[in-house]
Input
Amino acid sequence: MGSGRLSACPSCKVVVRADVYPALIRDAGQGRPGDPVTVDGETSCFFHPRNRAVSICARCGRFVCDLCHMDLGNSHLCPVCLEAGGEKDEPVELPRRVLYDEIALALAVYPLLFFFVTPLTAPAALVIAVSRWNAPSSVLPRTRWRYVAAILFAAVQISAWAWISYSQFLAPHLSRQAFLGAGV
Output
């Protein structure tokens, strides 16, 4: 039981501490009783008609009590739907994460098809890539190559626009002023 020792996870090699409590070994029994229905007409559990319903199953729409109610991500499921999902090998829905590395790379690469929007999207890609460098990416480990690629693409685009601006607008005016300033 709670030895307090650290050990490495066999799949990801992260050092973790896992304490086992007696409730894990003990027989779970029937669980705690739900709140009884106190008023006629009050919603009751589909599986336990004497218990008050506290939520609705996200898949089948059944009313379920505290005993039957299962939280899975952001949805509530009844035991039948939870078991049926396991039998059908349906993927378990986890909360979705924003993958900023993909957003930054998309902002840097896709606008190349419409080059006139790159003066807006290249700095945006650069800001997202740099500001979200340490943000948690995904449940699965991911490398930062998308961030690096987005930073490189954005830097090249910003440099190209700076060179175009200089050569088209500033260079002709600067050379003309130098020519006039020389007294010729």
